[in-house]
Amino acid sequence: MSRIWSTERAAIFAAASALLILGLLTGDWLIATLLVLGSYILWLYRRLAKLEKWIRRGTKISQVYDDSGFVDTIIRHLYQQKKQHVQRKKRTKSILRRLNRNISALPDATVLLGSDLEIQWSNAPARYLLNIRSPQDIGYRISNLIRGPEFLEYLTNIDSREFIDIDSPIDPAITVQIKIASIGGNQMLLIARNVSDEKLLQESLKNFVANASHELKTPLTVISGHLEMLESGENLSPAGKESINTVQRHTERMTDLIQSLLLLSQVESHQLRPDEGDRIAIEDLMLATMAAMEKFPDRERVEYHYANDCFLLGVKSELEGICINLVENALKYSTPETKISVAWDVNALGEYIFSVTNQGIGIEAQDLPRVTERYYRAPRITAEIAGTGLGLAIVQQASIKHAAILQIDSEPEAETRFSITFPSYRCSKEQRKTASVYRLSEY
Questions:
Q1: Are residues 211 and 79 in the same domain?
Q2: Are residue 130 and residue 71 in the same domain, yes or no?
Q3: What angle (nearest 5°) sits at the alpha carbon of residue 203, between those of residues 107 and 423?
Q4: Contact 179, 154 (CB under 8 A)
Q5: What does the buried/exposed string (b/e) look like for 211-224 if buried means 16 or more CB atoms within 10 Å of the residue's CB?
Q6: Is the pLDDT of residue 130 over 70?
């Protein structure tokens, strides 16, 4: 700052001295003033014009020059800012190059989309999975290159599904799983991966379970028939009857296991689209559940509360599997003579909530995260109560398939509540002239 004023003071002092000299020599102070002031303004204009030319050319560091006074200060400030900008630009370019190399090395196809779903960047795997080439396809809308109806529907409502599976535009034999996520700034990131092997393995597993179950059903049916014949014999000893009863129990358990495996392989097949499924009356689900509970002598403990004008969109057998498994578990693991509440409610978002509440042995805190794992059974109840360990795994997978959320609240030796919240787009209600009637089962 002192340098600015020292230079400007020198210029002003020189102008004043020139004015004094010219005024004394000419005796015309007006002309002397105009000459000195015009010269000073011309000198300032020349300096500012030079500064403007440097700024107009981009304040290039290679063209920086020296000046004096306030112009020199402006030049130095601009020079420092330009230098810092160049350094930041170099660092940013270096980071972008590293990021580009890292993303390009990803095995999954990655495509950066703009606000209008136009392609802004893509890596090499995108060419082999989605036939998107860079830089030839940069600027094109993604919908112009991938035209499948399911993909176009996904683009219109990305939040409706977590991901979709489509056939590759290059090879229909390749199944590509696509997920689109927002990354801010009206930009989205499309990630695609080849899931053909996973799909083939899942299909093979499903076929294996179906074939194995089919082959096991016939001998189990024959064994059950012969056991019934033997049991009706009059010459059986008490030990023989006990042996037959033991074999019958294991045969029934094997039959239940086969049915559970079949249902589990079905619910794990794929996730339903928001509009996929049949319109199923909740009343029908509850009637099927009541019929399945006929085998329990204490079924009258269960109280059913539901509206007879509510409907769900989904797969009926899988929704029945959810209801039956939860009510059956409540009967098995609750304290005898206590009531079991089975209810359908509606929350403020229009979501249907199916809940089963019982009083019983409950679930220990360390077991809660694992109860939905297949074949997992809490150690303290494994020997006491027969089961396959697949019931809650079926409930969890069927809930996920229907985009529903399973929640378990339990305290040991107290109340246990299983609740499943179905998204509003799967819920509907029949319009009636009379109010909905809640039924309480007489079972």
A1: no
A2: no
A3: 80
A4: no
A5: eebeeeeeeeeebb
A6: yes
Q: Which domain holds residue 55?
A: 2-99
Residue 41, number of CB atoms within 10 A of its CB: 10
Same domain, 300 and 395: yes
Amino acid identity at 4: I
Residue 63, pLDDT > 60, answer yes
Residues with Cβ within 8 Å of 53's Cβ and at least 6 positions away in sequence, in order, are none
For residues 313 and 347, is the Cβ–Cβ distance under 8 A?
no
3 state SS of 60 = coil
Torsion sign across C-alpha atoms 142, 143, 148, 153: positive
Q: What is the reported pLDDT for 443? A: 30
User: Which of the listed residues 78, 99, 120 is the one where a domain comes to its end?
Assistant: 99
How many structural domains comprise the chain?
A: 4
Q: Are residues 312 and 382 in the same domain?
A: yes
Instruction: Please write the tens of the pLDDT for every residue from 154-180.
Output: 888 887 777 888 888 888 888 888 888
How far does CA 308 lie from the centroid of its chain?
33
Average pLDDT over the chain, rounded to an integer: 79
On whether the CB atoms of residues 161 and 181 are closer than 8 A, the answer is no
Do residue 168 and residue 229 come from a single domain? Answer: no
pLDDT of 13-32, one tens digit each?
A: 777 888 788 777 777 788 77
Phi-psi region of 260 (alpha: psi -120 to 50; beta: other; left: phi over 0): alpha
What band does 379 get if pLDDT is binned at 50, 70 and 90?
low
Res 252: pLDDT: 74
Domain boundary among 226, 245, 269: 269
User: Which helix (H) or strand (E) element contains residue 40?
Assistant: helix 29-56
| Residue 111 contacts residue 142 (beta carbons within 8 Å) | yes
- Look up residue 115 and give its two tokens: 């606000």
CA angle 413, 416, 417 (to 5 degrees): 170
Q: What is the pLDDT of residues 399-422, one digit of tens each?
A: 888 889 999 998 887 889 999 999
> Structure pTM?
0.53
What tokens appear for 431 in the block?
A: 């319009």
